[in-house]
Amino acid sequence: MKAASENFGKYAKENLIIQVLGAIFCSTILDTGYTFGVWLFSCVGYWFGFIFIRVRRPAKPSKIDLLFIRFATLIIFGVTWAISPLVYYLIGDLL
User: Per-10-residue mean pLDDT for the chain, 95 residues long?
Assistant: First the structure.
């Protein structure tokens, strides 16, 4: 049986493939770059979270850590894409 720490690299490679395919897909959507910008934001957020988890628990990640490493880009993208119009609306009222 593999140790949980060995799954870090495997899940990170899977997520990197998802990030590249998602970037290609989002760049083809004609919405003045809004979806692509949200996708890039979610990718950067993923890598900050990945580094944080690797520093915090390098030898024995929890199941939640592995779940984050595997699916976080898609979760962050969905949440950010849904909330960002509200944030833009609120910032527009402040300016």
Answer: 68 90 93 90 93 87 86 91 87 66
Number of compact structural domains in the chain: 1
Q: What is the residue range of 15's domain? A: 4-94
Q: Is 76 exposed, middle or buried (0-12, 13-18, 19+ CB in 10 A)?
A: buried
